[in-house]
Amino acid sequence: MTYKFQLIGMIAVTALSACSSLEEREIASGSFEYIKEQPGQKIAIPNELDQPNFSDSYKLPEIGENAPVTAMGKDLSVLSPSLVLPIVAGSHIEEGSKSATVWFDQVDDSVPLDTSVWNSLIRFLETEGIGVETFDKDKQRLVTDWMVWDESKDNKWYSWSKSERTIKQRFEFSLDKKIHGRSAALSADLVEYKEQLNPESPEITQSKDERRNEIDVLNKVVKHYEFETQLASVKRYRQIREGLPMELGFDSDGEPAFVVDADYEITWPRLLLVLRKLGFDVKDFDKSNGLMFVKYNGSEEGWWSDIWSSDKNQFDLDTEEYRIKVVAAGEKTSITLLDDESKPFLVNKLTDLYPKFSKTMSADNLDI
Questions:
Q1: CA angle 294, 297, 300 (to 5 degrees)
Q2: Separation between Cα atoms, residue 65 and residue 58, nearest integer Å
């Protein structure tokens, strides 16, 4: 019997906690009789008596000029402050900033930073079924259509109270780029607000907490951006691990080269793996100019492979330094092998190296 009463009590508590609406969760519980109280007066001590030592330890600070003095009782939100969450790699916030703003730094050089941010934002709006009212890429400004939230759709069958509250919001997103273009701040501003507690109630056009609404929508955009970034990283990682087709051809200067059937951003890290596998030590590189400085040390295969295999994966190369030029060629990438004086390998020498390079480049699940 005791167990049954405990179970009933738990169900009742669960139902009561689940039935509160968003509006009810924003305000304090209990009575609001305190707002009727008047400030107390300081105790009057006759001059002929000793004056006690009063302490200001618990004195409330003075109200600021911009403080909402009418925010009392049910008009005062008790929700914890909203914080901008810079969870995207290379993102951060400015210390002390109270605006709904997040800074992004250029991480992926394949796409301009502002293009990457706007594309992710627009895809987020499309995913949520939210239209775009205006978008000006030159002015780095986007205004959304109405974002509608209907609390009645969240009513549960076990709720003891129902809510018909609807909220409509429109936001302006703006991007402030640094002159160098590798850093940009995305901000969200609430431009229009409509709220109704039920279909018959008057429309409310002023949000109780604009900053919270702005930060909430900005965090959703940032979260979507992070999801897309992680998804792209996983896809890129898989592409690098997978084998890439390669053939003999020519680079843009007409010199003999290996031509890989993959774009530059995939071919570059893949080539680093291939070179290590084939016994090349990459001493230095400049990805922006497509140059690698390498030294051939022989195959990385150990003595065990030498015993059981006549093919030691060795090249007919001197253990000296070489250079490699990597250039994007549309959807493909050319790889030109050079000597230490930047002279391209001859066709016959490149042809001799091709079988082992091609075999390793096309091998699946190459160790990273």
A1: 110
A2: 21
CA–CA dist 333, 266 (Å, integer): 9
Mean pLDDT of the 172-177 span: 96
Q: Report the C-alpha gap between 262 and 4 in whole angstroms.
A: 66
| Helix-helix angle 210-241:264-277, to 10 degrees | 50
246-361 is classed CATH 3.30.310.170: yes
For residue 153, the model assigns a pLDDT of 61
Distance CA 165, CA 24 (A): 11
Among 86, 92, 103, which residue's Cα sits nearest to residue 185? 103
What pTM did the predictor assign?
0.67
Which part of the chain has CATH 3.30.530.50? 78-236
In the chain, residues under CATH classification 3.30.310.170 are: 246-361
Whole-angstrom distance, CA of residue 178 vs CA of residue 33: 52
CB atoms within 10 A of CB 250: 14
The model's pLDDT over 69-92, given as tens digits with 9 standing for 90+, comes to 777 777 777 777 889 999 998 899
Handedness of CA 367, 281, 111, 117 (dihedral sign): positive
Architecture of domain 78-236: 2-Layer Sandwich (3.30)
Instruction: Examine the pLDDT at 16 and tell me if it is beyond 90.
Output: no
